[in-house]
Amino acid sequence: MDAATLILIAPCALLSGAALQILVARLFSARTKGILAFLTCLPAVAAVIGIAPLVRSGQGIDLKPLPWDGPLAFVLHVDALSVLFAFMGACIGGLVLLYSIGYMAHDKSATRFYSTMLVFIAGFITLVFSANLFIFYLCWEVVGLCSFSLVGFWYTNREAVNGARKVLLMTHIAGYGLLAAILVIYHRAGTALWTDPAVAHSMTSGVFALMLIALVAKSVQVPLHTWIPEAMAAPTPVSALLHAACYVKAGVYLAARMHSFGVWPAAWGESLMWVGTVTMAVGVMYAMVQTDLKRMLAYSTVSQIGYMMMGLGIGTPLAITAGLLHCLNHGFFKGGLFLTAGSVQHASGTRDMNKLGGLAGKMPQTTLSWLIGVGSMMGIPLMSGFASKWMLYAAALQAGWAVPAMVAWAASLGTVFMGVKATSAVFLGPTTENTKDAHESPPSMVWGMGLLAAGSVVLGVAPQLAVNYFLNPILAALGMGAGVHVTWLGLSADAGSFSSTGGLVLALVSVVLGGAIYAIAYAARPAAATVVGGAMMAGAGGSSSAGWGGGGIFTGGEPLSDQGRLTAGDFSEIFQEHWRSFFRWSNVDRAYLGVWTGIQAVSRWLGIASDWMERDAVILLLVFVSAVFGLVRWVLPGTAFTGLPVVTPLEQVPPMLVWSIVVAAMALAVVSLVSSPRKGLFLWQSMLAVGGITVLGLTLSAPWARLTCLELGAALSLLPVVRAARSQAAKFTYMTVVVISVGSMVASRLFINFGQLDSARAFLLTGIAVKLAAIPLCFWLLALADEVPALALGLIIAVVDMAAFGEFLLGTQEIPGLLTPLPLVICAAILTSLLAALLMLTQRSLKRLLVLSTVEDVGFLLLGASSASVIGVQGAIIAASTHALAKALLFISLAAPEAAGEFNSEPIALATRYPVSAFGFLFAMLAMLGVPPMLGFAGRWRLYTSALAIGHVPFALFILSSIFALIAYALALARNWWGPPREDAPPASATREPFALKAAIVVLVVLLVAAGVWPNALQMLRGVRP
Hints:
The chain is mainly alpha-helical. 70% of the residues lie in helices and 3% in strands. It has 39 helices and 9 strands. The longest helix is centred in the N-terminal third of the chain and has 32 residues, at 158-189. The protein is globular. It is a multi-pass membrane protein. This is Carbon monoxide-induced hydrogenase, membrane anchor subunit. Residues 73-114 form the NADH-Ubiquinone oxidoreductase (complex I) chain 5 N-terminal domain.
């Protein structure tokens, strides 16, 4: 089998398995689905192992490029570094799936779980195989979205909802740093292939800093590490995959991959090294005070990833080898530890170490797996963690970094303390109320964690297997020499050697001596005192003491708890008491909360101004329209473009936009027929009329015929508003908007015919600004939000407005200088997007949120239209098409809850009663935000590139707008769709999602995802050729 086939087998087998899970959703049990998921992972494991010998020489394998998205090609490049991380993803992921067979055997949502897990692993493998940085970013976000979905898997659990929200916000916001870096590289080098030497020449300190932000968040480094302990409400297999195999390792891979770009300046390596050094110290300090078993392991992950970053930052061959070896070791021992923690929770029903104990006799196989894993994490000789930690200490000292070496050593001592505390609390001592009936886990769970433990033993006894077969080829690929030499039962490198066997003997002697001292002291303790009648009486030993009681262990102070041993809580309280200042000042979430409070204050002040405008919407609309017209006509007359090229003229509205509007109109019409029994027929007829006439207008090339149909469609959109709006004010407001916009567009066409282009320009810009609700003319749309049914709003926003934007695109090329002076137009676009996004942050009404999201997106559309560049206009066309489909999907997702009266009060936990609508809302939200692999990404990256060509400040402000919109959507998802239902909420069986509504949602989601995964399929529909 050739290399190209092996490379494709790995992700394709996993994706096929995900599709199979969906196909057999109603046929098999959860256990059978787990077996299928595990079996479909095996070909990926075999393929990765088969690739490994092909890259041992240090050479890479290139897959023939395939067209993907316009100027970007789908290119894969696999070298030894790719294989190492793919091996972790496939092998550890496969063992996690094996464990899941027993763990998820009775879960009703097994299909969703296994399909997402398989996509998760496939996304990670494709990420490490990718040579195109845009494909890399797409997979980066696919992995992130899978993590978000799996952390929130039990979305009726408030802890899971909050954790998922934090995962999405912290990692995706930081991910904009990676996207910005890629766009800067593409803008400078003209290519996105990291294998191209031009990319290395485009790497500057600024680009490195942007990538560093992204990888710090992904790999849970300080100060962007606080999301990972909040993600522990996820199913245990998810936690293992996050920590051990895929998620946090994506950041480590990015740090390692940047070494392929060439020799780093000293400042880059030192920055990464100190980030890792600080992180390992902070992580272990927080881990030592945890009483929740999984939170303790989460913070230990923070610390352990710090070791990897320290090695990659030092950057010598020995340090890189140590960092990557520890990455592999961590995959096995931390994966095993999380699975054993899940096994403990599965048997006892709790993760609280204060409520655990005595499990060694109840769960011997789980205990053995834990001891191997925790021994490896502590760095006991002949366990895997020892080899990589020793090499890292040696590399740091060899490079002259004594302080980081000492910090790493101290962090290891803290890890020992933490591991001993957890082992004692969970597995030793007497059983508790929670553990008295515990029993060993099912065989699949035992095998899953047992094989991971075996991997730790193998890599501890024979670390040269990893060094010789994985790590030395990586050094060769990076041009760093022959590599590191490791021997059986010992280590040797340029920095010296160490006998692992001798170290193990010393460790065992220490344990035996410590145990003997403890046993002698425990046997010689005074007899327990008993309280009788309020007086302390001596026990059998005949003595009494105020310092002893309840069989406590002597500490030189007061007696211990009634368990007769130090509990996890005792350790935590002692440690927290002495390090209180450290924990207070190192809590970075306090700083984030302060920033968030300030942003919310700005949003509330903007909301007050917006509310005032809504109250006098018609009067202010007339005032602002007059001001905009006067400004454009007499103060800022247009001039022909001089510095920006005009793209190939559009003879008609691009087919892609036309078809998107057709699909949106059809979906809205179908859903309107079934969503409201009383008004459905009228809404259906109105929507068919509006959609049909609008689409007819878009297909016409004659200007007057096109304009007549489009404005007639806009006028007919009054019908559903007048029929269904709850207030006369809303009806009158929209009627005013229609009259102004129709009159302006007709006047503009008349003045074009008369050759008076300045007046035509003024009328066209005024009409479009009103119709698209650009700042400051957006408040009329807010005035309609809570007064008009969701489907009628969808018709206005997805069909009428996007058709108007298509007409506007033609106008930009028909009227010279339409969008000049350019700086003012760009400022208007930025303000429209940024202010709307800020307003979104404090909205609690879903419909008002979606209305403001429309305004935010209009800013991007204006940016693309005003760029006068091929990539900008293409971006605007794709963004408008996405807007039509995604906005229709968003409002359709609100139709069923609205029909049931859910919006009469603030809706919560809608997903429990309207699961398909929640599914549609989530995907439409991602499409609007331009998150890959949704269609919106193909438009957004082009628009960001256009902003970057204009300047760094516009580029940064549009990114900031996207961040605010992301926060607002994430808050709405967690507040309104997920979470536990109210006690008075109707049962899921009493709610209604008609089949036509479900079908419309699924069709729209499939279109948005399919077009985003392979956007080149839409190349011929864009209407603009590069």
